[in-house]
Amino acid sequence: MKNERYIVMRWAGTMIAMVIIFLLSPLHSLAQVKVESRISSMEMLIGQQVKVDVSVTCKPSAQVVFPQTADIPQGMEFLGAIDNPDEKAADGMLLRSRSYVFTSFDDTLYYIPPMTVSVDGKDYKTNQLALKVLNVEIDTLHLDQYRPAHDIQQNPFLWADWSMPFWLSVLMLVLLAAAYYLYLRLRDNKPVIASLRIVKRLLPHQKAMKAIEDIKAEHIASSENPKEYYTRLTEALRRYIEERYGFSAMEMTSSEIIDRLIQGGDQTMLDELRQLFETADLVKFAKYSTLINENDANLVNAIDYINQTKLEVPPSEAEQKPQLTAEEQRSQKSRRVLKTTIAVLSSAATLLFCYVAYSIYQLLS
After folding, report:
1. Residue 61 is inside which H or E element, if any?
2. Strands 43-45 and 94-104, sheet pairing
3. Enclosing H/E stretch for 9
4. Phi, psi angle pair for 350, to nearest 5°
5. Angle of helix 270-286 relative to helix 292-309, nearest 10 degrees?
6. What is the DSSP string of 269-338?
7. 3-state DSSP call for residue 223?
8. CATH class of the 32-134 domain in this structure
9. Residue 203 carries which DSSP code?
10. Running DSSP on this structure, what letter comes out for residue 250?
11. Burial of 186 (0-12, 13-18, 19+ CB in 10 A)
């Protein structure tokens, strides 16, 4: 009997617990959803706007449907609805809300009826709200204290009047920027300095003596290469004779030079000159070996011949024009083009500046 009573009591307790859970489950589900509404201000002046916020606290997965419009009393006007971003609430819940904007032009007390919100297919009602619309008090006995309405004024700024100076100013800045860029190019491109040089012309005997002095300074007469010595010595004499007497001695043989001098009537030291040329030909073409004293004697004979046949004429001066390379000529041309372009751009920018300044003065005056 005790066991049967224990079984019956245990079964009864289980049934009671199941009934309690069944009865409390709707309350628990109801506790999951919270719907409320609030108004931004309970009073407003005629023509102002008021906002009613309807919020729902529910699970993130819940399907919430707000009313598109609000059921408002006569005298109020519905202006529109605004969906607000969702916010996180406590216990992992989500707060969803929507704002409804109203206005009114009648001074009275309005009762805004509850709105119906659907959550997962189930309807929930919001709380009822009240709104007091106040009239604007006007002192009809002292109307002078209120300013009359302003007349329509013309806008002093018209883009049609300022557009031309504006775009011309932009063009002026572009021209100045281009001129500055070309100036930098001109500054980096260094000028080609080409100046005239005044060169003193040496007389034929001066050139010959200078060449002989170079031979003496290099001590070629005492070297083991007599061919170079006689080649340079006879070349100095040939150039002297060519410039002194006016015939192409550089292209003639030694015997032709002597014959031409004899025909010209100049007999000065021809024997010594002939001997010098013959010795030079033997050294250059026959590999003839000379002694040092023989080389010195021929050098002295060359100097004596030059001194006895020279013409004392005052030295003249001549202007020597510089010879520019193709690259230097291109550089000069490029600099001239850059200078011309910079001058044109600067002049155009200056004219534009004057015109823009005058136009602005006319618009402001």
Report:
1. none
2. unpaired
3. helix 2-31
4. -65, -45
5. 140
6. THHHHHHHHHHHHHHHHH-----HHHHHHHHHHHHHHHHHH------EEEEE-----HHHHHHHHHHHHH
7. coil
8. mainly beta
9. P
10. G
11. middle
Q: If you ran DSSP here, which 8-state letter would residue 46 be given? A: T
Contacts of 128 (CB under 8 A, 6+ apart): 111, 112, 113, 114
Helix (H) or strand (E) holding 183: helix 159-188
For 206-244, how does the pLDDT look when each residue is reduced to its tens digit (9 = 90+)? Answer: 888 888 888 888 776 666 677 888 888 888 888 888 888
Q: Are 166 and 356 in contact (CB under 8 A)?
A: no
Neighbours of 346 (CB within 10 A): 16
The H or E element containing residue 346 is: helix 326-364
DSSP-derived 3-state class of residue 100 = strand
- Residue 296 or residue 85, greater confidence: 85
- The whole-model pTM stands at 0.36
How is the chain split into domains, by residue range?
A: 32-134, 158-195+322-365, 200-313
In order of 44, 120, 245, 261, 280, the CA distances from 258 in angstroms are 135, 135, 12, 5, 14
